[in-house]
Amino acid sequence: MEHPTLPASQLLHARIATKAHFFICGLLFATWGVHVPTVKAQFGLSEAQLAWLMLAAGIGSLISLARVGGWVARHGARPVVLCGASVVCASLAALLFAPGYVVLMFLLFAFGLGSGGFDVAMNAEAVAVEREMSKPIMSSFHGFFSLGGLAGALIGSLVAEAGVRPVLHVALTCAAGFALVWFAARAMLPTHATHSPEEQHQGFRLPHGVLLLLGLLAALALVSEGAMYDWSTLYMSQELASPASIAALGYAAFSGAMAAGRFGGDWLRGRLGASRTLQCSAWLAGAAMLLTLLIGERWAAIGGFALVGLGLSNVIPVLFSAAARVPNVSPASGIAGVSGIGYLGFMCGPPLIGAIAEHSTLATGLLVVAFFAVLVALLTPHAMRGISRPDATKVPH
Fold this sequence. Notes:
By secondary structure, the protein is an all-alpha fold. Helix content is 79%, strand content 0%.
């Protein structure tokens, strides 16, 4: 939709607000991630029961994903961001108060429903800000998600060391996140920037051809990323007998490396090209995960998780960039199709690993991360062959 160029100060405020939303989203995801062992212990859950909870969150996200595009088109990104974030904060804050497994499953379903809306709406806002600024800045937004994950993990480690009750930590984090989301939303772009009446009745449509292959790569990468968010802390505490304060550092190392890699992603892609960046990143993630599991020592795991994060950091931004350059497909449609399939992987991967862990060990389940990273590296040349040139080399220096 055509509309006048917005003032530079308004764009700056919208960019800061969007970074804040990505940061808070990462913080909330990390708060759930570091307390997976808490939930497991408090409710006496097996790996299979925990996997079903994560599947409930995934189903909530899929339902949200099927509708959120129409919601954003009809109402703009701001109300969907506010609604989604509010549901995430409320359901997460209530988790440790759940009276039983059924209520816990309902709350995780609500968490997934809200996170799907929050995630898609803030990405729609990020695309609008990037379009208004006429330069590639998407990687930096995703970098703030990783910074939020790092902050959440470090806070989790510190409060565990200080003996703060988990229920208090979760409640205060959710309250702060809720307040910051609503404060930052005041600076979001006007409704017309993300409001598209002509698309408000369109639902999720499965892509095909090159877009389908790019989407499958995104799903493989996000299975790995989701696994690290949901299972890395439990691996540290359960398989490597790490105390809570040390276990949270594995998550922190992964998130910190993800953030660092994403802030340097545009520079790297400008020098290696999209295809080589994808391949090198995937090989690094796969090799690091395999070595981490083979060594099986807590400090090696912290370093290994950092390398996995560095390897995975730019896979999704590069795939989104490629999706926007598929011939005969609009950039918005390309990104939406790839992100939709990728999101399925992000939410469905952790239950897959939980099911494997139930019948073997969590270390065996996490081998999926290495295996899928290798698949991304091997399939990248086929996927990128159908992408129009020039490659993504026009980046800020």
